[in-house]
Specification:
Blueprint lengths: L3 E2 L7 E4 L8 E3 L4 E3 L9 E3 L8 E4 L2 E6 L8 E2 L4 E2 L24 E4 L12 E6 L5 H10 L11 E3 L10 H15 L4 E8 L7 H4 L11 E5 L6 H16 L5 E4 L4 E6 L10 H14 L3 E4 L9 H5 L5 H20 L10 H5 L5 H8 L8 E5 L9 E5 L5 H10 L4 E6 L11 E5 L2 H6 L6 E2 L9 H16 L5 H4 L15
Helix pairs in contact: 1-4, 5-12
Length: about 500
């Protein structure tokens, strides 16, 4: 087994697969290297002398510029490498014309819905329209736990601080998010809980819900009833009774929408976990299913790869707007576009945003881009989609659920316990994490470094997804972690 891995033949650096020490002579596939410095696991070592000002290549693309002379065998990181990114730019389309590779169809056991895609869960959700009734929603969820059991697979409230004192697009986004969750296929029953005087109340949200199944949704305005807890429990009882008739049935995997996200990444995320998700994405889209890639700021530096995989000029132009609009968002707030890798990312070996982005986009596989979605927009095109949302883990994962994802695949190199409104499958980039945090991790992609192939791991991940869609509980569900985070962009009145 090699000590370091060079991802492409063009790379000037290799990534340490274990902690290696100064003075060691280590293997990296095509030769050996005597190290002049310690290199932590997931971090980069220079395979040759790199000149000051030279672009440093990893994944076959520049990840930044050397700020000093970097001798062969030394550590390449934040002390001697800086980003090459800048603000908004113009792009040219150089279409790659990738093809969706057909895959054998598959089946999962889901809950067919009268309108829309099948659910992979049959849960009872309480959605407050405004933060003022968050505690009412939580109190109702606590009282309604007695309703859980059988086909009622859980009762959850999703508090948030918004729904009032918002303006313009910011307020529109809150309305879209709540409406999309109220009609989500994983919710067998939904109580939309309003106060009565908020900007984004029930009357404002209803038009965004479209043609929904009225048997599965109830509405309550707290100011219009004497006892909101009593009135709310009556409506929840009605919904639960209706849900008890639901049964899992065979459903085609082409009805699955799977979100793809990474967080708490390390230097191995782009080598193991994210490429494994990419193989899965190609498999699912080859069956006619749908995947969604998000966290736009973590596409900066790798965006042209996605642009050139767009199926049409229209999609290319949408992707350009997706990227440049987010850059304008940073600039309007007088924030640097490139300041994205977190302290944990850097400790794990990720140096620049380009480094992070090139690893992040491995989750997209090799299929063509079939759709580009704005924040809060529901997915309609089968295949690989790009979604506008920030890199923040819970905000982006919620955005994936809002766009219709029944499940989120979440790769991580350092670990995280959270869960979004839908099952959140945690995929470890390394085996030490998978062994240490068994209460967080659902799938170990670190086995790629222990003899398994990407194709084997991708096929196994597909099986894990089908089992989860059929009712297998994820770690975040076992831990009772279900949270909601709406993207806040505007002023608060």
């Amino acid at each position: 087994m090699n000590d370091l891995v060079r991802i492409t033949p063009q790379d000037a650096v290799a990534v340490a697969l274990r902690p290696v020490k100064a003075g060691e002579t280590v293997s990296w596939g095509e030769g050996t290297l005597t190290l002049k410095e310690d290199i932590p696991m997931g971090h980069k070592a220079a395979l040759r002398d790199i000149r000051k000002g030279e672009a440093v290549i990893k994944y076959g693309y520049p990840i930044g510029e050397a700020t000093e002379e970097i001798p062969e065998g030394t550590h390449v990181h934040t002390h001697n490498l800086r980003t090459l990114l800048s603000g908004e730019k113009e792009y040219e389309w150089h279409p790659m014309h990738p093809q969706t590779r057909k895959a054998e169809p598959a089946v999962f056991q889901g809950y067919p819905r009268e309108k829309g895609r099948p659910g992979i869960r049959n849960e009872l959700w309480i959605l407050p329209t405004v933060g003022c009734v968050n505690d009412v929603a939580k109190a109702l969820a606590q009282r309604a736990q007695k309703l859980a059991g059988g086909s009622v697979e859980g009762v959850y409230a999703f508090p948030h601080p918004y729904g009032c004192s918002q303006l313009g697009e910011d307020q529109e986004n809150t309305r879209k998010v709540l409406a999309d969750l109220a009609t989500h296929p994983n919710a067998g029953g939904v109580l939309v809980l309003g106060l009565g005087c908020e900007n984004s109340g029930i009357a404002q949200i209803k038009p965004y819900m479209g043609d929904y199944d009225e048997s599965r949704v109830r509405f309550l305005i707290c100011q219009e009833v004497e006892d909101e807890l009593e009135a709310g429990m009556k409506l929840l009882d009605e919904l639960a009774e209706r849900m008890r008739k639901d049964r899992r049935e065979p459903c085609s995997a082409d009805q699955l929408v799977i979100g793809m996200k990474c967080g708490g990444s390390d230097g191995l995320s782009g080598i193991t976990a994210n490429p494994t998700i990419g193989v899965f994405s190609d498999l699912l889209t080859g069956m006619g299913g749908t995947t969604i890639l998000t966290e736009v700021p973590e596409m900066f530096g790798a965006e042209t790869i996605l642009m050139n995989r767009c199926e049409s000029t229209e999609l290319f132009e949408k992707t350009v707007r997706l990227i440049n609009d987010f850059k304008r968002y940073f600039e309007a707030s007088h924030m640097p576009v490139y300041e994205n890798p977190s302290p944990g990312n850097k400790a794990g070996g990720i140096t620049t945003l380009e480094d992070k982005a090139l690893g992040c986009t491995q989750k997209s596989g090799s299929s063509p881009v079939k759709g580009v979605l704005s924040y809060g927009e529901k997915v309609t095109a089968a295949g690989l989609n790009l979604l506008s949302a920030p890199g923040n883990d819970l905000v982006a994962s919620t955005a994936l659920a809002v766009s219709g994802a029944q499940m989120v695949l979440f790769s991580t190199g350092r670990g995280t316990p959270f869960g979004c409104p839908v099952p959140t499958v945690k995929i470890a980039s390394n085996s030490p994490l998978a062994r240490r945090k068994k209460n967080w991790i659902d799938f170990n992609a670190g086995r790629l470094l222990e003899g398994m192939t990407l194709e084997e791991l991708g096929a196994e991940l597909m099986q894990t997804v089908l089992e989860t869609a059929s009712g297998k509980v994820t770690r975040n569900e076992e831990n009772g972690f279900h949270d909601l985070a709406i993207f806040k962009q505007g002023v608060t009145l």
